[in-house]
Specification:
Blueprint: H1 4-14, H2 21-31, H3 35-48, H4 54-84, H5 90-93, H6 98-104, H7 116-131, H8 133-152, H9 158-182, H10 184-196
Helix pairs in contact: 2-8, 3-4, 3-8, 4-7, 4-9, 7-8, 7-9
């Protein structure tokens, strides 16, 4: 059941749609299914090769491995939750929003809660943040902008985005604290192989 506050926030934000062609265009770009995921992927690739010392580079590379595992895990958990709980999108509850959705993005058909977009972007940013606060904050910028753009497009309710973000953060925290120590030896072996191949 959708809370009234969710609907009120969506209607308030949706009132901005169409008022500024520039804002609408920015939101179209940010909501795109490819721009932010590709941007975060390129950021992770850049982080892999950062570091002035061997120890710093090793730390960043472990952050990228943690991010990759966290992204996959958060995506899987979001999809599993989607199948357990069917939550409608704003444009399904309020058909008058469909025009705005089609103007900025498109009406998606998978369940709304939790937002898969928020889950994977926040998982990536949180994984990096746990190893490097500075780099993590940089990754949080696109990780936050994409879900907000989809909120503007009336694709998700605020609770969908918040739920996805919490799922992503908790998943990355669990991967960092529990899974990474368990996989320490296989990861070390992988790094040894990568360094022999001169890719790490």
């Amino acid at each position: 059941m959708t809370l009234q506050i969710d609907k009120d926030i969506i209607l308030w934000i949706n009132a901005l749609e169409g008022k500024s062609a520039l804002l609408d265009r920015v939101m179209m770009v940010l909501a795109n299914d490819y721009l932010v995921p590709v941007t975060i992927s390129l950021m992770l690739m850049a982080i892999w090769f950062l570091g002035r010392t061997a120890a710093e580079r090793d730390n960043y590379q472990r952050a990228v491995v943690c991010a990759a595992i966290s992204i996959g895990s958060a995506c899987g958990l979001a999809l599993a939750t989607n199948h357990l709980y069917r939550h409608p999108h704003p444009f399904e509850d309020m058909p008058q929003l469909l025009g705005a959705v089609q103007h900025i993005f498109y009406p998606i058909h998978d369940p709304g809660f939790p937002s898969n977009t928020s889950a994977i972007t926040f998982a990536a940013a949180t994984a990096i943040w746990q190893r490097s606060r500075r780099l993590g904050l940089i990754v949080f910028i696109p990780a936050t902008l994409m879900p907000l753009a989809k909120l503007y497009a009336a694709v998700y309710y605020p609770s969908d985005i918040l739920g996805g973000a919490i799922l992503g953060v908790l998943t990355a925290y669990f991967i960092y604290k529990v899974v990474m120590p368990v996989l320490r030896e296989p990861i070390n072996l992988g790094f040894w192989i990568f360094r022999k191949l001169c890719v790490a």
